[in-house]
Request: fold
Amino acid sequence: MSRIRILSEHIANQIAAGEVVERPASVVKELLENSLDAGATRIAVQIEGGGTRLIRVMDNGAGMDEDDVLLSIERHATSKLRDESQLAAIATLGFRGEALPSIGSVARLTILSRPRDRETGTRAEVRYGRLHAVHEDGCARGTIIEIRSLFGNVPARKKFLKSARTELYHIEEVIRNQALASVDAAFSLQVDGRPVLDLPAGGGVEQRVRDVFRCQDPLLPVDFTAGDEKNGIRLSGYLLQPDASSSRTNRLRILVNGRPVRDRMVRHGVVEGLQGFLMKGQAPAGALFLQLAPAEVDVNVHPAKLEIRFRSSREVHRFVVQAVAAAIRAYQEEIRSDIFSIPAAAPEQPAAPVFTAEAPRHLPSSSPPAAASEPAESVRRAETMVRQSAEPAASFRHDPEPFSVVKPPAGLVDFTGLTIIGQFFKLYLLCEQDDRLIVIDQHAAHERIMYQRLRRDYLRRDIPGQNLMFPVSVELDPRQLETLKRYDADVALLGFAVEDFGESTRVIKAVPALVSHLDPAETLVEILESLYSAPRDEPAAVVPPRIDHLLASMACKAAVKAGNRLAPAEMFELLRRMKESELFSHCPHGRPVVKIFSKQDIEKWFHRL
Ligand code: ADP
Ligand code: MG
Reply:
């Protein structure tokens, strides 16, 4: 007699359950997918005892008749795949026909379902893999699936479950992710009778993202397409602002062709696209939807369908980087035109003249526009402020490009569109614009401006160094010497000129101009230390993370500090540079640079509304 036997259906199901049903959340995921595949628009989930006592999922989908109910609990029974050609381009969430039989083999499963065209429904009960009872039963159109005593027959599995709180967290995550994938369906979750999540339908993607992330702040929209209709690829969705307080729910959720997945490559692309906007160690958060031809993705590489494989993953990566970078730029342009708009008082003003401290450009030569002869109030105030400035030609200390007094020539509308009210706390610039109060963190703003310039210079291999009048010698320890040797090209690119001078002594002949006011030896040692401890991976054509970090700390050192009193001209110059900086809304550490208070906000403080 042969020793090899075909496994019984029951054992096969239990083995499959080992892969598909890892924890209560995996059951919820499979059930949600089934409800959505059945066209449900309202799905209610109820959980008791962290999911081991009860998981109940109720939907208003297509429902099943008696035959289908019985088939649904057979292994490899599915209504979603007819032949293998469909496997190459799967459009439903389920397709393996394994979930219900697998779940049914490790729990007590009840199905109650009624299709639209039937008067009564069917109730079927499966106990640990064996059909226990089937009979007619009354029920609303749709399906109710109940799972009790999950893992009741596999105590080893049950022991591996975490606390009820952890299991609930995973269940919530599954619902949040699926809710992002299916914004047209309403989802709710009740835990031990208490409502925990309520995600109504009808508000579109943006509202769903807000509901899922519980976020009221402005979101960063992403929408980028490449290729044509058939072979095209699109990334859309919303990112949270980098400073959005990070909670466990605030993470990056990636959906590929409507399927929530974990994908390191896409994630990496997002991080890279956000470079310079998110600092190292900060995680991106938001919901991004990647759509591409189904044949470009293999979804059948993971039993719980949590991972996928891209056919051309390098191209997808590049696309994601571009898409996210474009979103950041568009977002900046929006804030730029919002806060730096020319005041409404001067609508005929031609495109905002680019105004530099060195050489004020042209005034409109021929007939000046009406607004020019009647300068807006903000301009008059600005000019008065500039004239009143006590310190002449004040400049930010240590700034290689000193700020000089900018005197808006008569007739030229205030070039930033903002009226400076003053400086608060020697840190915040208070500005007025239309009926809004705009508060700018001078340090964060300047830091961002400096950082943008450093990055640009670095990418052009052109960070200005400044020769020291008196070269400084520095004693390095073996590790620092080793680091200097390995990264000598990077150190030079940063603006240093360092020469050997005996065994462990080096002579610093030039330092990055931006930090020329700092102790050269200390700066070099600090940079060597961060080069030593930083990760080594560096994709080409972007700033390597370790250098990025250095640029940010150089920018921080060089920027005006909290506590520096600024002359009006300096404030203007800061605003002007902000206006022209590619990114300006957040400092390189992700802190906001600008906060806007509307008249209503302020009137609310005083109960004037
Ligand atoms: P799959 O989803 O891979 O097809 P499942 O075991 O999850 O496999 O489900 C088996 C079949 O049962 C499905 O193909 C579907 O026809 C039916 N089914 C499951 N859940 C529902 C539901 N909530 N509403 C309607 N039909 C369902
Ligand atoms: Mg399924």
The longest strand covers residues 465-475. The chain is about 35% helix and 20% strand.
